[in-house]
From TrEMBL:
Enzyme kind, highest EC tier: hydrolase
Function recorded in the entry: Catalyzes the hydrolytic dehalogenation of small (S)-2-haloalkanoic acids to yield the corresponding (R)-2-hydroxyalkanoic acids.
Protein name as it appears in the record: (S)-2-haloacid dehalogenase
SUPFAM superfamilies, alphabetized: HAD-like (SSF56784)
Pfam families cross-referenced by the UniProt entry: Hydrolase
Domain of life: Bacteria
The organism's taxonomic lineage, starting at the top: Bacteria, Pseudomonadati, Pseudomonadota, Alphaproteobacteria, Rhodobacterales
Annotated signal sequence range: none
Keywords tagged on the record: Hydrolase
InterPro entries named among the record's database cross-references: 2-HAD, HAD-like_sf, HAD-SF_hydro_IA, HAD_sf, PGP-like_dom2, S-2-haloacid_dehalogenase
The family this protein is said to belong to: Belongs to the HAD-like hydrolase superfamily. S-2-haloalkanoic acid dehalogenase family.
UniProt organism field: Ruegeria marisflavi
Keyword Hydrolase applies: yes
Catalyzed reaction equations: an (S)-2-haloacid + H2O = a (2R)-2-hydroxycarboxylate + a halide anion + H(+)
Length: 238
């Protein structure tokens, strides 16, 4: 029985690209804001990879984002007048239109929490900005590592005192779900075909037989409700 749903956040719950581009445009009007936001996000995985591979100890994503901002600013040949203020753009990302209502419906059926590479501080401030009604904050800070490392998913399950098979990972990224499934979690896929803009070519469709494949969070809630009626999901309020 699924007793908790844990969520990828960047891309799955919030539109990082448009939100960060808006913040960049306000601070650096001389640059292509969408290109800058995309380049900033492009430094995300390489920065985490060094930590996953053991070349560097754990560094919270807030600090990696700031380092990556400096790298991208140099590449664009610009000086950021207030680095810390612009770095906080990652705390002011807007949710996709279906997310708030969908999470509210899901919260009535099971515990809900982020399992993000964002720090607890970042995820808490983002939740306050976007109105994300989490029951708690899970993810990278607990494990002191980054997805798709197995310990990130397992630490989230352990924090809830649940076995992996009682937890469903929800994400718009097939690779995230594959890593979660590999350590025993259930999986839910929701496509976000606009995450990377009009030219997106990845994660447009499910690439495996995930446990739930939904059109949006409202559809995810409807399918979870069906699972609950079959006795496969435990109601959090029961």
């Amino acid at each position: 029985m699924v007793e908790a749903l844990i969520f990828d956040v960047f891309g799955t719950c919030v539109d990082w690209r448009a939100s960060v581009a808006r913040e960049v445009a306000a601070v650096l009007p001389e640059v292509d804001a969408e290109a800058f936001a995309t380049a900033w996000r492009g430094e995300y995985d390489p920065a985490m990879a060094r930590i996953r591979e053991g070349a560097r100890g754990y560094v919270p994503l807030d600090d990696l984002h700031l380092e990556n901002l400096d790298t991208v600013a140099r590449a664009f040949g610009v000086r950021v007048p207030d680095r810390l203020a612009l770095n906080a753009a990652w705390e002011r990302l807007d949710p996709w239109p279906d997310v708030i209502q969908g999470l509210a419906a899901l919260k009535r059926l099971a515990m809900i929490a982020p399992c993000s590479n964002g720090s607890i501080a970042l995820m808490t401030r983002l939740a306050r900005h976007a109105g994300l009604p989490w029951d708690c904050i899970l993810g990278a800070d607990l494990a002191r590592g980054y997805k798709p490392q197995p310990e990130v998913y397992l630490a989230s399950c352990a924090a809830l005192r649940l076995p992996p098979e009682a937890v469903m990972m929800v994400a718009a990224h097939n690779s995230d779900l594959a890593a979660a499934r590999a350590v025993g979690l259930r999986t839910g896929f929701v496509a976000r075909p606009r995450e990377h803009g009009p030219g997106q070519v990845q994660d447009l469709r499910p690439e495996s037989d995930w446990d739930v494949i939904a059109e949006d969070f409202a559809d995810l809630a409807a399918q979870i409700l069906v699972l609950r009626s079959r006795g496969e999901v435990s109601c959090a309020g029961a």
